[in-house]
Structure formats: structure tokens, C-alpha cells
Amino acid sequence: MQNDVIMAGFGGQGILLIGKMLAYTGMQEGLEVSWMPSYGPEMRGGTANCTVVISDRPVGSPVIQSPRAVVAMNLPSLDKFEPMVRKGGLLLINSSLIDRSSTRDDIRILLVPANDIAMELKNPRGGNMVALGAYVGSSHAVPIDAVERVVRETFSSKPQVIDANIAALHRGYELGEQAVA
Amino acid sequence: MQNDVIMAGFGGQGILLIGKMLAYTGMQEGLEVSWMPSYGPEMRGGTANCTVVISDRPVGSPVIQSPRAVVAMNLPSLDKFEPMVRKGGLLLINSSLIDRSSTRDDIRILLVPANDIAMELKNPRGGNMVALGAYVGSSHAVPIDAVERVVRETFSSKPQVIDANIAALHRGYELGEQAVA
Amino acid sequence: MSEAVFKNPGSLADVQTHYCPGCTHGVIHRMVAEIVDELGVKERTIGIAPVGCAVLAYNYFNLDFHEASHGRAPAVATGIKRARPDLMVFAYQGDGDLASIGAAEIVHCANRGEKVTVVFVNNAIYGMTGGQMAPTTLPGQIATTCPTGRDTDLAGFPIRIAEMLSTLRTPAFIARASVHKPIYAVHAKQMLREAFTYQKDDRCFSLVEILSTCPTNWGIPPAESTEWLEKNMIPYYPLGVFKRPDGEDRAPLPIRPARRPHHAE
Amino acid sequence: MSEAVFKNPGSLADVQTHYCPGCTHGVIHRMVAEIVDELGVKERTIGIAPVGCAVLAYNYFNLDFHEASHGRAPAVATGIKRARPDLMVFAYQGDGDLASIGAAEIVHCANRGEKVTVVFVNNAIYGMTGGQMAPTTLPGQIATTCPTGRDTDLAGFPIRIAEMLSTLRTPAFIARASVHKPIYAVHAKQMLREAFTYQKDDRCFSLVEILSTCPTNWGIPPAESTEWLEKNMIPYYPLGVFKRPDGEDRAPLPIRPARRPHHAE
Amino acid sequence: MSQIVINPDRCKGCELCVHACPQKILGMGKTLNAKGYFYAEVEEQKRCIGCRLCCITCPDVAIEMHSHGTMYHYFSY
Amino acid sequence: MSQIVINPDRCKGCELCVHACPQKILGMGKTLNAKGYFYAEVEEQKRCIGCRLCCITCPDVAIEMHSHGTMYHYFSY
Amino acid sequence: MAKKLMKGSEAIGEAAVQAGCKLFYGYPITPQNEIPEYMSHRLPQIGGTFVQAESEVSASNMLYGAAGSGERVMTSSSSPGISLMTEAISYMAGSELPVVLVNIMRAGPGLGGILPSQADYFQATKGGGHGDYRLLVLAPWSVQEAADLVQDGFDLADHYRNPVMILGDGLIGQMMEPVEFHKDRKPIKELKEKIWAATGYDGTRPRAIINSLFLDPATLEKHNHKLQAKYAEMTRDEIRYETYGTDKDYDILIVAYGTVARVCSTAMEDLEADGIKAAMIRPISLFPFPYEAIRKAADKADAVLVVELSAGQMIEDVRLALEGNKPIHFHGRMGGMLASPEEVMEKVKEIKAGKSQEVSHV
Amino acid sequence: MAKKLMKGSEAIGEAAVQAGCKLFYGYPITPQNEIPEYMSHRLPQIGGTFVQAESEVSASNMLYGAAGSGERVMTSSSSPGISLMTEAISYMAGSELPVVLVNIMRAGPGLGGILPSQADYFQATKGGGHGDYRLLVLAPWSVQEAADLVQDGFDLADHYRNPVMILGDGLIGQMMEPVEFHKDRKPIKELKEKIWAATGYDGTRPRAIINSLFLDPATLEKHNHKLQAKYAEMTRDEIRYETYGTDKDYDILIVAYGTVARVCSTAMEDLEADGIKAAMIRPISLFPFPYEAIRKAADKADAVLVVELSAGQMIEDVRLALEGNKPIHFHGRMGGMLASPEEVMEKVKEIKAGKSQEVSHV
Ligand SMILES: Cc1ncc(C[n+]2csc(CCOP(=O)(O)OP(=O)(O)O)c2C)c(N)n1
Ligand SMILES: Cc1ncc(C[n+]2csc(CCOP(=O)(O)OP(=O)(O)O)c2C)c(N)n1
Ligand code: SF4
Ligand code: SF4
Ligand code: SF4
Ligand code: SF4
Ligand code: SF4
Ligand code: SF4
Ligand SMILES: [Mg+2]
Ligand SMILES: [Mg+2]
């Protein structure tokens, strides 16, 4: 079994971070993982993306042309990656910043108002956590409690933000699970 | 027919110059020629040599391992090049500066007191011309009058030395011819 | 009738740059373009883009442009100027490009007195590659390759290019300016104008070092960056003209050795 | 009993050099060896041979030696010294090597304040390759690549390395001496001793520029060469100490930006 | 009379012009432009003295100044 | 008492020592050494003042100075 | 040690530290800046030294000096920076110094781009610098392997007294994967004391002279023969490669190295699902090159497909291995474009279908 | 014009001048100092400019700039100096600039020695610098041919907008031979106006941007495809070689280039005297390489002998040409040692006698 996802958005939205946390969780769970950031010309343009592969066998290509899932946190990312989602795959759209959905009918589409939820939870910078939770909820690439442990570890030096981030993570997870159900 | 010769001595004895004049004469005579100087580590050591090839067909290797003739103007040059002379070839020794002959019995040996003759002719720097003349006299690689024209041309900007050099050339030539005879 | 009294100069392309918000590379670009316009030399000016954040400068100027390999813009400039002395040639270089890898090229370009103009943008950091220490990084300043701040015992003190080049005997125009605030920018533009004018008059090599901000890699928002520059950089990098071509008399000391050197034969 | 009061120093190999008659490279070699002996550091000294006439220096010193590629001796010295700070490291370089191709390396070695010693032999010409123009060739001086004499309009003025390096803020010892006559050589040796001593005391970078003759490529016999040097080189290349490490106070200006620079994520 | 025109699509929201204006009549807007930046706006055009400091300071040539009639320049630029 | 010893095989005949000697007691010989150079010789040892200038000036370390008994040095080297 | 999730660049840095490298001299260039950055904070922790050189020319000469003093030293760069090191690399090879050089390749030529490429294969394996010298070139395909090869690289460099190059592409430098460092790793070669190092001459051994100059041609020729004998020894003992699926039957043999081989391995799985039998051989040592192994592996196949992120450079070595015995096909991407598993599958299917054009023979 | 007796280095300089080269940027290095020295006095006579650069790095970047302005420009150096130029050479190839580069090879690696060598074959033909680029490489065997190839080189460089390298050895640089320059020499290619040159943008043509940077990988890949297409065109149109004695029957085919081919030609004559039949093929263009011609010439022979002043570099291309069809033997000298006709004869006799060991296949 292999799960792979491209996560994309503005630099500063914490995209690379949630990608790393996802990969790290996979590794903790004894799975094979790879995390590959974009480092191309787009970097200075203010967008960022990464590809995470989680698999029970050694990871082949760490770059995925037709990913099983895409998490699009802003419009340019949606425009760029929407066509690439593999048939039957998942497209997660941050509907707080993107006011369109997808017209593709061969994939699952999940609208998550990530920033709005984060705002609601008084965690304005927690949109990325919501998205991470939603991806995990709808893909079950890794167990959510394993993600939770990684979140705690990641923010161990800033204990004041842990609870808020975990709350965001779980709210996302619930949305993700519901969508699959 | 090919003639080839290595001319060797101290830097400053005018070895490279007579080599060039020989090659130039060959070219003037419509022959194929090449002139190859030593430029290796020995240069700073104060010795110099060059290889001249004159042929009626395109010159093959411009570097000759077993030359048909060697002109040794000082002892280190004799030591170095004596063993290389091709069987039946010519070894011309400047006996003014070298007080030994050669023990080889498979080559022709010609002792020329080049510097002494030059001194005699009141042309103390003309030892190289004597040697050139002697080589031409004993090899007939080029006609001596063609060499004379080249000498005139070469020194055209210093007319005062022309006659002395031509005298030296001819004295050498005579010695060379006698030896062959 | 309304008339635009300040607008995009003709020598600047009407496109958005890739520079980070508040990065003063943009100000310097505009001023160089304005001067090319003002001097009326647009049709015979060649710019040289460095390797650094300004690597894409060829997209931003409405001029013929030439790339240089990292640090070698002064050599490329020399190549062009010697080939076509009728052209105006300027090299645009960052501090990593000019003061680090390109130190030999700038010293020798200046020392040969090539009649080119160098716009030297000193932002005390490697911008393009993500904030490594430059030879111009200030003591104690943090960078990704000096994570606890530049330690002068290990890396020495920042190099002052304008001062160093000014010691060369060959006539030149060498100045330092800053663009962190508009009033400094006005002065910077005067320096640039003077520099380009020396070239236009076929007089000498000219170089203007311009202090510039790098909000992204300094990790300081744009407006604060200007304060940081003023407080920290200007004391170490004083502004002003360091050398003018007429500052030294040009008596050529005609010395010749006794004879022509001869080769070992 | 007779005692040798002047003889081949122990750090100098007892062999004949390949240098031309009267070439003062030999004098400089001997003095460096004498100082290594006098300071008692022979067992922990590494010399670096340049690419130039002194390329074979490793044959002439009784010391461990390291080759450098052309101009990069200061980088090689840096490599060794950082790896083994307990060693004494000196680079021996010619003017083509140091001032031309190696300009960036010497500037940055000095600017980082590497605790090495550079013996810089300025003979105003490329000796090894047969007399081409060096950056130090005097105006009007003939060389094989400036057959009518150095034209300062085309090649600029000779570069004064000691002066240029002395403008760097990093503490250092920088001096210029000459060995064309014995009394100058005595002074040169004092400069060299001071330079090596700064390194021995782990204090700073040190460089002594030493004016030297090249009778062969100047085309001037040895004794006349010394006169030529005195008459032509010394006026352009004044002798003396240009910088001592205590000449500048070392207050380290501890500046830090407001926050740690962050990468674009 | 000077008029300041800020091109919203060129502005990167660096706020340098806001700080540069001696009259403090520039401010940051609340809307994002196409590139995702909050861009600068002229808040009180009529107090503008036409000093051009905002234009000079803007790294993105996002600010133009137009004049109606002849203008006196405080300094040459 | 100082004694100057010139090694004929080391000497390259540059004549620098001849010029350096304040007593003018060194000169060039008339014989060639192995390398083909006319080498320097001490012409009048007894006038030597032991100043070492010849030693210091010789680029080929061809000159040694020996002393008999304690010597006063004119200058430190 | 437990597994850590690390960027390839950082894993390379840490592997060097674990291998006893205390000195790093380098100059920034994308996409490997994280190596010098990592070293700048890591080396001081272990009493080592990081020096940011003023250029790659200088960095490589610093390395030259430091290696000559017998220490374990490393530098890293990317394509244009490596070009600037070629003179010093030739010197180090000529002086027989053990150093580890890392090239995280980006797209060229010239300034090119910063995305992954394998277009420096020739430069690495045939000699970018002048003269007859060879680097021992190792090409990892994962972060773990990058770390392992760096450690092995130090041992090999010391054993052969020869520069070793780790040839990775941008992906290797930038991606994160789990890495494990083995605490009690033993050197893979018996390591002798470096009595040749220049550390000061105290008379107890011959003088140490680190040098590549031999003015006498006969001596220089002898020196070259010695170098060639060493390269022959490497060719005998240091060939590394891995095969995938060669135990079964197959029609197509894929030859690929570095991360693009992972792309091919994904393609292989998908091909299998489609009923097409392919196997792969992955050279790990690029010099010495596994000619013999490739020739053998090709025996079973009808055709060979070489996949590279270049216009086709390793393909020359594959052609030398096969000497016309099998048809060879090529799939290459350039400019920072990556080959995808889909493309590779497509190409294999074309070959099967007789629709792919064979690489011309001469 | 009448024949002149000229040193190879000077003939190269004069040929450049005759070809309209008005600019030379260079740095001294033995054994080619006579080229810059010649240019320093010659160019001012024709209103041209000689610049002594501070280094080869700088010289090559000066060349880069000057070529970008559309002028005919040249530099020359020898092995270590060429290594320092590799970065800029890659830039020039990437930016498609016509320049002529002369490498008078000396022995390596490292500082090596100053005597003749052919050990930079790989560097010249496979790319010493990073990225997928090719130089058009021409190797003369006489002073006259050196002069001719320099002139042709300028035309080829302009035509293809590509750097051309003249690859000679120390002998070519140092020896004197008669040379003739033809007054009314016509360009060997139709030359177009250099509208791409950066000479100032006046609006009458698109902006000229001399550049090798393409941050977008798809664009960079396209650019690379364009370069590759150009190299394919060269491979189709610019192969040069000469054969000697191939009209007769022969047992041994010698493959050699540069001055060592002359040594072989002398050996051939002597072999003929001894009744041994040998022929020779001499590649003149090393890239593009005459694979096809060598394959054909080898048809008649029982064995092929490659002679090089290196450890064996061109031999790889000969092996690619022959693909195992004929046994290949090798005779190489290194370090500045020259192969002699006697050695070559000896080797041929050994081959005939079955006493020479064939070069191993893989
Ligand atoms: C030979 C080479 N080395 C290194 C690099 C990587 N590099 C690109 S830009 C740069 C430094 C840029 O810094 P600076 O010159 O200060 O310009 P800034 O970005 O700060 O304006 C470096 C090291 C390169 N492209 N080529
Ligand atoms: C990369 C490189 N470029 C050029 C050379 C040729 N070269 C050898 S020595 C030298 C210059 C020597 O001059 P200098 O440094 O002044 O030393 P000198 O011989 O005068 O003592 C040059 C250019 C080289 N060996 N390597
Ligand atoms: S990284 Fe720094 S120098 Fe580069 S564009 Fe951004 S702010 Fe400007
Ligand atoms: S060429 Fe000049 S510097 Fe070199 S050894 Fe001879 S005199 Fe000395
Ligand atoms: S200075 Fe320019 S870019 Fe910055 S906020 Fe003002 S208008 Fe926008
Ligand atoms: S012109 Fe001056 S006063 Fe008017 S908005 Fe700009 S800065 Fe403010
Ligand atoms: S020691 Fe002094 S006096 Fe005696 S020979 Fe030498 S220079 Fe002359
Ligand atoms: S100085 Fe030395 S080498 Fe020169 S002549 Fe005197 S003894 Fe001989
Ligand atoms: Mg910078
Ligand atoms: Mg010199």
C-alpha cells in the first residue's frame, strides 16, 4: 500500500512543516517514507509545495506525477495541481482562500475551510493543522493519534501552542472522516 | 631523402638560431622542413637543443630519437646525445669546449674546434656559424650558398657582422667537406 | 492636463520583479534605468547581470544584457568594453558576487582602469542562496553559515570594498551610497550619475557601492530593515566619495629597463 | 678552532637551486630558512610552494612542503592551518601568482585573518614563463606581452599589494622590504622575523612583500639589476611596515539582527 | 498639483512608502491583490506636497506621480 | 678573525658579492666551474672585516664565513 | 542509533562527521546549501572547523592543503561550482590525496537551472580536469545510501589515496528520508597511518612533499603509471551495483543510476502489473563502472533501456559494456525535468512494440 | 602569400588575425606563451586589442563578454589553464557563443610537466565543464594545419554559434614549419549577420540577451534539445579525418591524431620497408568523431592499434566505433614522453606476432 500527497500553498502557510510531520509520523509507524520539497524557481514567487510518500515497501520515485492526493491551500496551487490528481484520488481544497471547487468528476473532492476553522479555534496560524488533519482523516495514511504525538513532539519547545494545534488537527480529521464516510 | 640533426649546447651559444637558419634554408630550397626546440625542464639549467628535419617528402615525426646527425657544442650535450646517433650517422663535436672524442665506431666523428676558429676569425660569437658550416659541409643537407643567402638575410639589420659570420660559415664548411672526402 | 512626473523609466521593463517585498534591489534598478535614460545612452548600453538575486536583471531592464558567471561580471564587462569601446557597459553585482568569489576580477578591472561602471549592491548577505554569510556580513550578524553570528576571530572583519579599491593608483571614481531611505537614495542616484558620466566621457573606471536591505534573509520586515541598515551598516560602511579620477596626478613614470628582455635564447 | 659563523641554515637543503645567476629568490629562501631555524620551529613548519620560479622550493627547504595550484597558496595555507593550528604555515609566492591570478585568495586569506605567513616576492615580472607583464610591472617597463612597455592607459598602474591589504580591517602585519643589496636584506630579514613571530605567537596574518630582481627577464645583468630595482622599483613600492596588528583596536562591534533569519520556509 | 497613483498589482505591500511619506498620507489597504499582498493606498491625496519621496522609495515602481500644471521640486533627483 | 670560504661549485658567477664587499677584496676568477660559470674568489683575505655582507648577498649560499675566536658583529642579522 | 528523518544534504553532512571528518571548506550553491549550513553548526560541536571559502576555486585548494596534512576533509558543491574545482581536483588526484567531494548536480549547461540533473556524468567519470586521472565516483539513490556512501567514501579515499566523488542529483540533496547511522561502523578498508602527510619534518621519516609536479618526463610517466595501476586496482575491487528482478526472466533490462533508478523501479512494478517483464541494473560506482555486470545482466534481455537525466552520457559506458550485442534504447530528460514512472513505462512498451528507435551504433 | 617558417604558436596567432580576430584575452602558461606574446604585438598593428587577463578564469569570462558583442575572439592556454576555464566554457556553450579556444596540451595531472601530452582528450570532447554541451574539437598535426584549422574554426564557431576548440600538443605549439596563408580565403560556411549580439538595444530588433539561465525546467529542456540538435548537425556535417595507405591492403590499422600521428606515419614507412602492411586513419575532428570512417577503415585490417600520448582516452571512442568487431591494441606514452617511430614499429610487430595483449573488452 502506498499513500502519496502533494501539499501546496503560499510560503508561510506552513505547508512544508505539515508535510514533514506527516512523513515523520509515517516513519514512527515503521513505514517507508519520503518528503520532497519544491525548491525550484517558484520559491521566490512565494509558493511552496512538497510531496510526501508513505508506503509499506521501499519508496520508489519520491516525485509523483499523478499523486493519490493533493492538498491545495491557495488558488495558484489548485490551478497547478488539480489536473494531476490520479483518477479516484483525493483533492482537498482550502475553501477559506479558494472560492472555487473542482469540475473533475473522476476524483473525490473535499472542501475544507481551513483558515476559517483555525480562526474559529482562535489559532489563526493553524490552518495548516486543519488541512493535515483533514488529509489524514480522509486518507488514513497514518493513525491520527500517531500524528498527535508528532505534533506534541514538534512543538515541545512552544508548549503554549500545542493544545490549539491539536484541536485544529482533530477538527480537520473529523471533517476528513465525515467526507469519506 | 631525409636529413635530420640535433644541435645542442649551452643556452647563449646560438644553437637554436643556427637550427632555424638551417630549416629556413631547407624551406627556401623547396624542401619540407621542421624545427623543434627543447623547451623542457633543461631550459633553466642553461642548455638548449633543437631538432631540424629536412626532407623531400612531408616530415613525419619532428622529434627524432635516432638522428642522422648530432652537433654537440658542449660536454653535457655530447654525453646526452652521443648514444642516440643513428648507426652510420654523423657526430660533430665542438673540440674547443669538449676535450674528449667519442668511442663509438659505428658512426662518423668530426672534431671541429668551432670556438677556436671563430676566435681566429675575430668573431668570438661565431662558433655556432662554424658548426653550421661544418654540418652542411659534411651532410650536404642544403647547398652552402643557400645557407649564405640566409645568413645575409638573417643579419641584414646588423650588416657589420655579416662578413665575419659568412667567413666562419665557410671555414666550417671546408672542414666538413674535407672530413667527408 | 495631467502629466506623469514620476513613472517607470523607459530603460526599465514594465514588469513585476521577483524581488521580495521591500527589497531595495528594485530601487537601485530603477535609478540605474533613470540614469541611462537621462544620459540618452539607452541604445548603446549593455548591462551585465550577476549571479545573485539580480540574476534576472536582464528581464527588468529594457536594454541589451549579458549574463556573467558568478563573480566574473567585471571580466565580462572588460570583454565587451574592449571589443566595443563605443558602448556603455555596466555590471550590476551583489556583495557575494563581487566581494567574495569575484574579488580578483573587480580588483583587476579597477586596476586596469576599464572604462566601465560597476553598481555594487551590498546587502551584507547572500540573498539568492538563502542567507549565508558574505564577506560583508557584519560582526555578530547571524547568517545560515554563521548561526551564532559572524565571529571575527574565525571569519575576520567585513571587507570594505570601496576603501580597498580606492588605494589603487589607477584613476577611478569610487563612492559609497545607500538607498534605505529616499533621501539617501537621492544621494545614491547622484553618485550613480557621476559614475556613468565618467564612463560616458571615456575617463575612467567607476564603481558605486550601494548599501541595500535584504528583509527576507535578515529576517527583519522591510521598514525595520531600513532602520537596521542605518544603525548597523552605515557606521561600518561610511558613505561618500572615496576617489575621483583627478584626485591623483597621472604622471606616467616612464621607466624602461636598460635593454629588451631576451628569452633564454 | 675555526667556527662557521655564516653558513647554510639547517632548514635549507644543501643543494644547488635552478635559479638564474644573481636571482634574489635565493637570498629570500635562505633568510626564511634562517628564521625557521632561529625560531626553533623547523619540526612543525610547512612551506607552500607557488607556481612560479619558486615552484621547486620544496627541493630547497629541509621542511615538509606542499604544492599549491597557481595563485592559490593562501587557500592551501588556510586549509592546512585550520586543520592543524599547531603547525607554522608559510606560503611563498611570486607577484604573478599572488597579485594576478591569486588576488582573491590573498585578499580573503588576509581578511579572514588566517594565522599564516606569506612571503611575497615581487620582481615586477612573470619569471617562470619567460617575462610576461605582471600586475606589478612598472609603467613603461618592457615585457614580452607589453613589447613597447607597460602602457598605463591600457593596463593600468602597477598594483601595490602591501598598501591594498593594509586597508583591511582585520588585524595583520604587513610590510615591504627589499633584498637587492645586503643592507636591505638585513631589514627584510627583520620584517620576516617579525612576521613569523606573529604567527608563532598565534596573533595574526602576516605578509612581507619583498622586492626582488629577475636579471634574466629584465634583460639586465645581476649587479645592474640591483641598481635598476633601487632606482625604479623602490620609488613606486616604498619600503616599510604598513600595518601591525595592534594598530587597530579590536572592539568587535557586536551587532545582531532583530531575529534569526528564516528561510523561505 | 500633484497626484499619487499606486498600482495595486505592482505593490508588494512592503510599507516603505508609508514610512517615507512626510505627510503620512499613505496607508496599507485591507484587500489582497492578485499576488496575495495587501497593497498601499493614498489616504488623503489633498495633503500631498508632491515631494516624490514615496515614488523614490518604492522598490517596485508601483507609484507614479502626476502633476497638473507646473510643479516646484524640493530637490533635484 | 674572519675567514671567507667560497664554494666554487655553488657559485653562479653573478658578481653580487664582488659589488657587496665594502673592502673590495672579492673578485671573479678565470676558471669555469662544473656548471660552466666563472666563480668568485677571495683576493685579499687579510683585509676582510667580517661584515658578512658578501654572505648575506649571495643568492646561492656559496659563501661561508668562519671565525677564529670571538667576533664582533657590526649589525645584527 | 534510531532512524532519523533527514534531508539528504544534512545526512551527507552528518555522515561525514560520523566518519571522522572534522573539516569542511565550502561555498554556497543551490541545491546543496544545507550541507555547508549543517556543517557550520555541527562541526563546532565536535571541535571541528567549518570555513566558508571565498569561492569554489579557493575551497578546493583549502581542501588540497588540509588533505595534505592528513585530516579527513570534505567539500560539496553543485555543477558550476564543481567546474571551478576541476583544476584543484586534478592536482589532488595527481598528488594522491584522499578527499571526499560531493556534487549535487543541477541542470546545465552554464548557469542553467537549479533543478535535478545527471549531466555531469562525463565530468565526474572521465575527468573534468586535465590529465589522466580518475575519481572514484559513487552515486546514491536514497538519503540512506548517500549517508552510507559518504562514510565508505572516506575509507576508500584513504585507502587509495585518491579523491572520491559522491555524485547525487538535486533530489538527493533536497528530499527527506529516514536515515540510520550505525554506531560501531568499522572501516571498510584497512587504513594505514598517513606517514606521507605533511605535518612537520622532524627527521624520523622522509620529508613529506605533497606535489604533482615532475619536470622530468620519465619520472612523470612513472608517476602516471603508478596512478593507472591504482585505477586498475579500483576497477578490480571497487565495482558496486545492484540488480533488481534479474533472478527472473525478463525482456527488457533497464540501466539507471541515482534517484532516476527509483523512478524506474516504480515503473518496473507497474509494468509487472501490466504483464511486461523488466529488470534493472543500477550502477552505484560510476568509476569503476560495472561493465561486466551489465553485459551479463543484458544476456537474458532482448533490449536494454538506459534512463538518464541528461542527453545520454552513461549510455556510452553501457555501449562499451555491450559492444553491439544488444539493441540499446535511451530515455533522457534534461533541464531539471524529471523522468516519471509513466514515461519509463511508455518507453518500455514502445520498445516491446518495436516502436522505439534504437540508439544508433556509431 | 609565400611560405613563412613559423612557430606553431605564432602561426596560430597569425591565422586568427587573418581570420578577422581582433581581440585576444589570455594568460601566460607554457608551452603556449608565444601565442599571447605574438598577439600582444600583432593586434595593435591592425587596430585590435590584446588584454592580459589576471587569470584563465577571467580570460574566459572576458571572452564570454566579447563574443557576446559579436566580435571574433580567441583565447589560448594549456591544460591547467583550460581546467580553470571549464565553468565559462559551459556558459559560452549554453549561451551559444562563437569563440575559438586553443589548448596546447601539456602533461598532467595537476601541475604535471610542460612537455607534450594528449591527456585532455576527454576534457575536450566529453565536456570538462558541467552540463550537456559539446565543443567542436579540431586537432592539427602540423603547423600549417594548425593555422588552417584556426581559420576554419572561426567560421565553424560563427556558423554553429558554438565554441570551437583547437586541441594541439606541446609540439604543435613549439615547433617551426613552413606556413602559407591564402590571401583570398573564403569562409567555409555561409556566415549570417550576428543579429543576436548584444550591441545596444535600439528597438529595431528584439532585445539581445546573452544568457544560459532558464529557471523554468521545461524551457531549459527545450533549450537543451536545441543544443543537442545542433550537435547532431555537426555530427552529420563536420566530421574530418584523413586516411593513409587505406587504398592498399593492410593488416594493421593505426588510429592516431595530432603530432603523434606523424610519428606513426614515419613508422608506417619503415614498416613498409620491413614488409609489414599498415594503414592509418587520423581523426581531425575529435568531436564530432569519425566513428563510421574508422569502422570502415578497420574492415580490411586484422587488428587496430591506437596510439596516444595518454593512458588511453580516444581509445574509448575507437571502441565505440568498432563495437568489438576487431581486436584493439594500444600504445601510449605519458608524462611528456613522446612515442617514437621505433616504438610504434615494435608494437605493430608484436601485434603481428601475436605477442601484444589486446585491450580488454570491458
Ligand atoms: C560558481 C557558482 N558558485 C555559487 C553559486 C551560487 N550562488 C548563486 S547567487 C550566490 C550569492 C549571491 O549573493 P550576492 O552576490 O550577495 O547577491 P544577493 O543575492 O545578495 O543580491 C551564490 C553563492 C553559483 N551560481 N555559481
Ligand atoms: C593555472 C595556471 N596558469 C598559468 C600557469 C603558468 N605560470 C607558471 S608560473 C607563472 C607566473 C609566474 O610569475 P610569478 O608569480 O611572478 O613568479 P616568478 O617566476 O616571477 O618568481 C605562470 C603564469 C600555470 N602553471 N597554471
Ligand atoms: S532574498 Fe534578499 S536580496 Fe534577494 S530579493 Fe529577497 S530581500 Fe532582496
Ligand atoms: S627567471 Fe627571473 S625570477 Fe626566475 S630564476 Fe631566473 S632571474 Fe629568478
Ligand atoms: S513602497 Fe511600493 S511596493 Fe511598498 S507598499 Fe508602497 S507602493 Fe507597495
Ligand atoms: S509625494 Fe510626498 S507627500 Fe505626496 S504621497 Fe508621496 S511622499 Fe507623501
Ligand atoms: S665579510 Fe665583508 S669584508 Fe669580508 S669578504 Fe665578505 S663582504 Fe668583504
Ligand atoms: S654572490 Fe655567490 S653566486 Fe654570486 S658571484 Fe658571489 S659567490 Fe658566486
Ligand atoms: Mg548580497
Ligand atoms: Mg614574478
What does this entry look like structurally?
- The complex is a heterooctamer, with 2 copies of chain A (181 residues), 2 copies of chain C (265 residues), 2 copies of chain E (77 residues) and 2 copies of chain G (362 residues).
- Chain A is an alpha/beta fold.
- Chain A has one domain (2-180): Pyruvate-ferredoxin Oxidoreductase, domain 3 (3-Layer(aba) Sandwich), CATH 3.40.920.
- Chain A contains 6 helices and 6 strands; from the N terminus they run E-H-E-E-E-H-E-E-H-H-H-H.
- In chain A, helix 2 links the parallel strand 4 and strand 5 (90-94).
- The mean pLDDT of chain A is 93.
- By secondary structure, chain C is an alpha/beta fold.
- Chain C has one domain (25-243): Thiamin diphosphate (ThDP)-binding fold, Pyr/PP domains (Rossmann fold, 3-Layer(aba) Sandwich).
- Chain C has helices at residues 25-39, 57-60, 73-83, 95-101, 103-112, 152-155, 161-166, 182-200, 215-218, 222-236; strands at residues 2-6, 45-49, 64-67, 88-94, 117-122, 172-178, 205-211, 240-243.
- The N and C termini of chain C lie far apart (80 Å).
- The model of chain C is unreliable at 249-254 and 256-265 (pLDDT under 50).
- Chain E is of the alpha+beta class and 77 residues long.
- Chain E has 2 helices and 4 strands; from the N terminus they run E-H-E-E-H-E.
- Chain E has helices at residues 16-20, 53-57, and strands spanning 2-6, 26-32, 38-42, 63-68.
- Chain G has 2 domains: 4-202 and 209-237, 3-Layer(aba) Sandwich (Rossmann fold); 242-352, Rossmann fold.
- Chain G has helices at 8-18, 34-45, 56-68, 79-94, 121-127, 143-160, 170-174, 217-237, 259-273, 291-299, 314-322, 341-352; strands at residues 4-7, 23-26, 49-52, 73-77, 100-105, 136-138, 164-169, 176-179, 209-210, 241-244, 252-255, 278-283, 285-287, 303-308, 328-332.
- In chain G, the strands form 3 sheets. Chain G has a 7-stranded mixed sheet with strand order 3-2-4-5-7-6-13, sandwiched between helices. Chain G has a 5-stranded mixed sheet with strand order 10-12-11-14-15, with helices on both faces. Chain G has a two-stranded antiparallel ribbon with strand order 1-8.
- The longest helix of chain G is centred in the middle third of the chain and has 21 residues, at 217-237.
- Chain G is globular, with a radius of gyration of 21 Å.
- Chains in contact: A-D, A-G, B-C, B-H, C-D, C-E, C-G, C-H, D-F, D-G, D-H, G-H.
- At the A-G interface, helix 1 and strand 2 of A face helix 7, strand 8 and helix 9 of G.
- Strand 1 (2-6) of chain C pairs antiparallel with strand 4 (63-68) of chain E.
- The structure holds thiamine diphosphate (2 copies), iron/sulfur cluster (6 copies) and magnesium ion (2 copies).
- One thiamine diphosphate sits between chains C (51-54, 70, 94-97, 121, 123, 125-129, 134) and G (27-29, 56, 80-81, 84).
- Chains E, F: It comes from Candidatus Polarisedimenticola svalbardensis.
- Chains E, F: Keywords: Iron, Iron-sulfur, Metal-binding.
- Chains E, F: Residues 2-31, 38-68 form the 4Fe-4S ferredoxin-type domain.
- Chains E, F: It holds the Pfam family Fer4_7.
- Chains E, F: InterPro entries: 4Fe4S_Fe-S-bd (IPR017896), 4Fe4S_Fe_S_CS (IPR017900), Polyferredoxin-like_ET (IPR052977).
